[in-house]
Amino acid sequence: MTQVYVIHGYTASPEENWFPWILKKAEQEKVGLKVLRLDPSTTPRLEVWEQQVDEQIEEINENSIFIAHSLGCIATLHFLSKKLHQQKIKQLVLVAGFNGRLGRLDEVNPFIDAAEINFELLKEQIQHRTVIYSQGDDRVLPKFSLEQAQSLEATVISAQHQGHFIDSEGCTELPEVWQAIQPYLSFR
């Protein structure tokens, strides 16, 4: 059976943005989905997030799906670069992701700089890779998400929502994420 893990972004929580919606959707469809809870500090540290992700993920297998948003994409790529040497997973969906510094929010630069991402390994070990971005995202400009998609040789989806996929910009549902994972959900 598929287990989906959702890794939120900077200063977020499982109760914000589109995370309650996707959790409810998964419950309705009887899909195992867990939104991880990470330190919401304005000066996050990668080693803290890495430990918290490690503590909340029970098992990774060939049916696992990871979904990440914004800074959570960096944390997820770093985590999977360490965990997938001997293990393949089904899918990775990155929402408003990026690979390096954004030229804003200097307080997250140490977090970004500490990440070790092995794109070659990730391309080999993740069966399906998808990047979702918004033309109207002024926090993570589209070019950064498109660069990430290129690094992962990922399928690219331009979302209907025109922003950074956060509730303060009106994003409380993100159907593109559900549509991206739906073909890869297995129920046994």
From TrEMBL:
Domain of life of the organism encoding this protein: Bacteria
Gene3D superfamilies: alpha/beta hydrolase
Classification via Pfam families: Ser_hydrolase
Keyword terms, alphabetized: Hydrolase
Membrane-spanning parts: none
Single GO MF annotation: hydrolase activity
Coiled coil: none
Protein name: RBBP9/YdeN family alpha/beta hydrolase
Upper classification of the organism: Bacteria, Pseudomonadati, Pseudomonadota, Gammaproteobacteria, Moraxellales
